[in-house]
Design brief:
Layout (H helix, E strand, L loop, with lengths): L6 E2 L9 H6 L1 H12 L2 E6 L2 E6 L5 H6 L4 E2 L1 H12 L5 H9 L10 H19 L6 E4 H18 L7 H17 L13 H14 L2 H6 L5 H12 L5 H16 L2 H13 L2 H17 L14 H5 L2 H14 L4 E5 L3 E5 L2 E5 L4 E4 L2 H4 L17 E2 L2 E2 L4 E2 L2 E2 L17 H18 E5 L24 E6 L2
Parallel strand pairs: 1-2, 3-9
Antiparallel strand pairs: 2-3, 4-6, 5-15, 6-9, 7-8, 10-11, 12-13, 14-15
Helix pairs in contact: 6-7, 6-18, 7-13, 8-9, 9-12, 13-16, 13-18
Bound molecules: protoporphyrin IX containing FE.
Length: 462
Amino acid sequence: RPGEPPLINGWIPFFGVAFQMKTDPFKKLKEYQKKYGDFFTLYINGKYFTFVLDPFQYPLVLKNHKQFDFFKFSNEIIHKVFTVSYRAQVMEKMKENYKYLQSKLLEKTVYNLMQNLQHVIKKQLLQTKNWEMSQLFKFCKSIMFEATYVTLYGKDPSPNSDEVIPELLEHFDKFDNEFLNFLFPIPTLSLRAAKISREKLIQNFSSEHMYKMLETSEIIRSRRNCLEKFTELPDHEKGAHHLVFLWASVANTIPTTFWTVYYLLQHPEAVAVLREEINHLLQSTGQKKEPDFNVQFTREQLDSLVYLDSIIFEALRMISASANLRVNEEDFTLSTDKGEINLRKGDSIIIYPPMLHFDPEVFEQPEEFKFDRFVKDGKKKTTFFKRGQELPYCLMSFGSGITKCPGRFFAVFEIKQLLILLFMFFDMELIEKEPLQFRKSRMFFGIQCPQSDVSFRYKLRC
Ligand code: HEM
């Protein structure tokens, strides 16, 4: 219709441009942006997706939640991927528990997290006398998965508890690798194994098992008790809710940790600044780097690490593939500096932050990892500019508006704690230097995993 963004239908009926987008969405979107500008509609799998790529229009889409609905999308996703059916009352009640992921209520969990990280590292790594070889993604994954699982869900009391976590991780991997295929209209062969793993994970979260777990965190106890109050909910559905949360709590943190370490190992100047910041923190908190591996930091102390913050945010800028998806509830006219643009009722509206994160006008040399990009005059830098104007959003890896990730503080504290331990106690070196590619298994849904793993070596720093 007149005044609507250009429509790119592709040439395959129903699928439209789905296959072109699957290969390299970022490159394809850059091409479309060059040809059609900041607003265009793609036809994909029978649906219309309008991309809004002008960052100054983001607030209008993200803050106007009556007009641009988020929940239609997320409900469809959690149903198709996790088998959770939409029940408004349950969803609303479950959200109330997010308070345990914020402010003072998070204090105890952050403390336990550090204890558990230290425990896992001691168990897995402390025997190393000389250089040990490993695969970096596998290494980060096994530490983060175990520490997060034990911190949130608690300890398994069964006699074979040592086998439980590696088994869960194996199922988690099989399930997560197929994340996008659960949403694709044609089932793939590999989906069968992923569905079996999904069932195993859901069974692990049966009510009976959840009540047996020891030292479960406040947020999970509260979610569990809340689900139990809905007596009409089948046990399977309750387990599926716990799987959603498990996925949310590790699926992005693991690759973020991996890429942060990976970039750091290529930038010794960043590692030197990080170690200096850690040493300063140790001194100012009266702690020493002792072989027993026992250090603790408060939320405020972790928050004060501006370089470590910047290092993590810079990695997040480079690796995040999350889109902000909304459904347009009514015909709507956007006023832009290029004129009015009509958006159609029922179409999906997509904001794709990687286009902003790699905009050279906002982030100079965006392909480069600049560890201090988010530091200015020794303080956190939070303002960035385009066309001489301050941007309303500059780093959107955690989403934005009312749907912003409730676990973002937990995530950053966890990654910080692990990086402190690794860089304080270990020397690490990459063995392979070839650049890594991103795996496309999470396109539009979070942090990208590496296409292949990379060898590295580590040894204790005495
Ligand atoms: C680097 C790590 C993480 C990243 C990049 C990340 C990113 C995101 C994003 C982009 C969203 C969707 C927001 C939107 O669409 O507007 C989200 C939602 C969510 N995240 Fe995270 N997240 C991370 C870690 C965590 C952790 C550690 C937890 C829990 C401990 C968590 C819990 C959640 C939950 C529960 C939601 C759904 C919120 C809702 O009900 O709408 N996330 N996250």
